Amino acid sequence: MSLREIKKEKTALKAIEAIKRIQDGKPNHRKLLNRDNLKLNQHTVEQEAGLGVGALKHHNDILTMISNINLTGSEQEKTTGTQTDIYLLNQQIIKLKAQKKAAITGKKDAIALKKSYAEQLETLKYENKMLHQHHAEVVSALFDLIPQEDREGIVIKAMSHGNTNVVPIKS
Q1: Distance between CA 140 and CA 92 in Å, rounded?
Q2: CA torsion angle for 28, 31, 32, 36 (degrees, to 10)?
């Protein structure tokens, strides 16, 4: 969720709380405290929420909520409660859908990465096998270049140096 969406959501929540206070007749704003007859409109909600003039012009859902409350008249409390709940649930649905979409793309990326790693592992195993095979062939070819009489002496000489990691096999 981007910073702009987070700020927009906070503004909407401030406006919803301000609508509730205006409907209850208990505003906090000093200009609205002195009024006997509070009207519920965009301007008073912006004042009560501590927002600037025109801050709600991009919040169509809040504006429709205000107009619906004004249209219903006698059912103000019921409508406000349900509309507020509907608004909050819709916001939660939007968040959950975004989280689901992010999780699905993350899972797809992980599967593709796993497949790529598996292919690389198979390639490396094959190359390792080929290197071992080539090494065995080279050692065998070099060993064949040494005359039969000298082979035993070279092995004994290599083992007598002591700085090697070759362990003699006892028979």
Answers
A1: 71
A2: 130
